[in-house]
Amino acid sequence: MNKKSRFAWCCFLALALPAAAEASEWVGTWGAAPLPPTAARGPFPATPGFTNQTIRQTVRISEGGRQVRIRFTNEYGTKPLIIGAAVVALADEKGNIQPGTQRTVLFSGKPGVAIPAAAPLLSDPVDLPVKPLSSLSISIYLPEATGQCTCHQTGMQHAFVSDTGNFVDKAFKPQQTLQLRAFISAVEVASPTRARSVVVLGDSISDGIGSTVDANRRWPDLLAERLEHKDSRGWGIVNMGISGNRVLNDGAGQSALARFDRDVLSAAGAKVVIIFEGVNDLGVAYGHMQGATADLFKSPDPLARVTGDTMIAGYRQLIARAHEKGLRVIGATITPYEGASYYSAEGEAIRQQINAWIRTGHELDGVIDFDAAMRDPSDPARIRDGYHAGDHLHGSDAGYAAMAAAIDLSLFK
Questions:
Q1: Rounded CA gap, 203 and 220, in Å?
Q2: What does the alpha-carbon distance between residue 196 and residue 262 come to, in Å, rounded to a whole number?
Q3: CA angle 197, 201, 203 (to 5 degrees)
């Protein structure tokens, strides 16, 4: 075959063969950090367990894609977690399943699976095209006693638990309504649009305490809306806030330093991490906590003493570990908390030291000044009226909207 003939043959093949499917990459589009189970403490109930029941949970994703897959978690389980069946579907704003969108979730081609103790597990890809900012309904049937679940305790979204039986593909009257994320820690999408994900490493202020339940008014949710309207390539937002979490010490979950690899570096498609933690370190170390709340956090180890220098050293560790994996690091200033139950003048002085370093230290790839967005101009140690949920610590819907609006979207390139 001469050169002219070969060229004609190649042109024929290019026209005759179907075009190769555009490559897709998995990107994190939703997240909830797993937490170890706890016993009942004062007003805080014990972590629940389930037996021969179905749990239905609604999550609002950020970025869309051609397929979805779910990361299930048994990372704090002491025995295998048996999933008898699971179904994912599109849902409306109230969590109602949209007819015709239900898809069976498979695990290595099978409808059930045993997740080993202390392990996560990714589902098979599910052919369910989803648009950005869509809501998904995830139903899980748990045929055997689970023991206390690996849950994210602050869901700010209602989850529905059936009476006995498998209801993954049908409606049921809830036996119980909870506000937690049970046995799920991430949703990923196959995105062909060069989408990337932003991981939020935070505490209860990122978890959305104080916002309206079932309304997706956390500041990371509102950031997802702003980014979707700005950037057609898409950004997934993976919210890994844990209520009560600290940078240096365990207590409400593992410390930020301890959980960073799992919750941030392993997130699919992660390109940016926003670090917004520290107020609990200051409040627990210097405030006057009593009763069940003090027992929940426990006293810090003397060898991990909280000072401005040790906190900044902790942030530097997170920055170095993120940069090693190619992530850009954006630091957010710690918001005011005078008036909160664990406020102290000592903690406030360290907050000012940390915020000055975040703003002027030039060690971060970007800065978000949440302190400036939330503080009362006439009393800068306090959150302005209307921006907190009545406790002088957590945001209201208006406060979280102000935080999201204060973020310079040019940080996400």
A1: 12
A2: 18
A3: 140
333 in Cβ contact with 364 (< 8 Å): no
Find tokens 């003397």 and name the residue.
Answer: 302
**Residue-wise pLDDT tens digits, 330-341:** 999 999 999 999
| Segment 2-53, tens digit of pLDDT | 544 444 444 443 343 333 345 689 999 999 999 999 998 766 789 999 999 9
pLDDT in the model for residue 290: 61
Angle (CA) 381-384-387 rounded to 5° is 125
- Whether pLDDT at 1 is above 70: no
Share of the chain above pLDDT 70, in %: 89
pLDDT tens figures, 112-123: 999 999 999 999
Q: Which phi-psi region, left, alpha or beta, contains residue 147 (left: φ > 0; alpha: ψ -120 to 50)?
A: left
What would the two tokens of residue 370 be?
Answer: 């949440």
Burial 6-45 (b: 16+ CB within 10 A, else e): eeeeeeeeeeeeeeeeeebbbbbbbbbbbbbbeeeeeeee
State the amino acid at position 193 in one-letter form: T
Report, as an integer, the average pLDDT of 226-238: 86
Left if phi > 0, otherwise alpha if psi is -120 to 50, otherwise beta: which for 169? Answer: alpha
CATH architecture for the domain at 194-411: 3-Layer(aba) Sandwich (3.40)
Given a contact cutoff of 8 angstroms between Cβ atoms, the answer to whether 383 and 399 are in contact is yes
Given a cut of 80, is residue 93 above it in pLDDT? no
CB atoms under 10 Å from CB of 287, counted, come to: 18
How far apart (Å, rounded) are the C-alpha atoms in residues 302 and 262?
A: 26
What are the domain boundaries of the chain?
32-186, 194-411
For residues 81 and 24, give the distance between their C-alpha atoms in angstroms, rounded to a whole number.
31
Whole-number pLDDT of residue 294: 58
Return the half-sphere exposure (C-beta side, CA atoms, 13 A cut-off) of residue 302: 0
SS3 275: strand
* Cα torsion 291, 294, 298, 303: sign: negative
DSSP 411: G
Instruction: List % helix, strand, coil for the chain (3-state, nearest 5).
Output: 25, 30, 45
The C-alpha atoms of residue 368 and residue 231 are separated, in whole angstroms, by 19
pLDDT band at 64 (very low <50, low <70, confident <90, very high): very high
